[in-house]
Amino acid sequence: MSNQNIIKIKDIESQFIHPTTIVTADRVFIDEAVVDKRSRKKDEKRKTIVTADRVFIDEAVVDKRSRKKDEKRKVLYEPTFIDLTQIKISDVTDSPGSDRCWVVGTPFKSYILTSNDVIEKQHWVNILTEASRRVADRLGCQFEVNPAATWVPDSDAKHCMCCNKHHCRKCGKVVCGSCSKRKAIIDQNVKTPVRICDECHYAMEKETFLGL
Question: Do you know which Pfam families this protein is assigned to (predicted)?
């Protein structure tokens, strides 16, 4: 690993709100950018960093620790670490401005990210797809990722999508309480039942009946 790469990785480390060491012998910096992450209430800025083995999706936080008089507070980052073996990159085609959006899907949470334009979006889709493929080739195996549902923003659902708003943990739709009274275990690694909509409930019942 080159000295320049080590310096870059250490610079990324220095921007984390909590001391975290991410320098390793084979961790190579690839690219970084600030993009918008779609959330339930509003879009939020996220610093996205890609290395040869991980994606870092960083939330900006203001450093409230002690500082010298007249010194501006630093903007640091609270990172989320995602192994490239646990991501699935997909397109977004069903919402306004979706030509600039893509999804970083993981089994635990999926992120809808938005670039400034279509060219930047394609650049990031290509980088993440290629980095993930290289990890699979290096390890000699393909990874089947079943990503968590992306949640539909509240602002996109003026009425119940299936009439107070809840999110179905299975499909991500916004539904009313009457249409989401049931709970189910949807992740075999997490044994706690979560709220699902009636449509997903009936679909899961059908799968169980048919032995799928």
Answer: FYVE
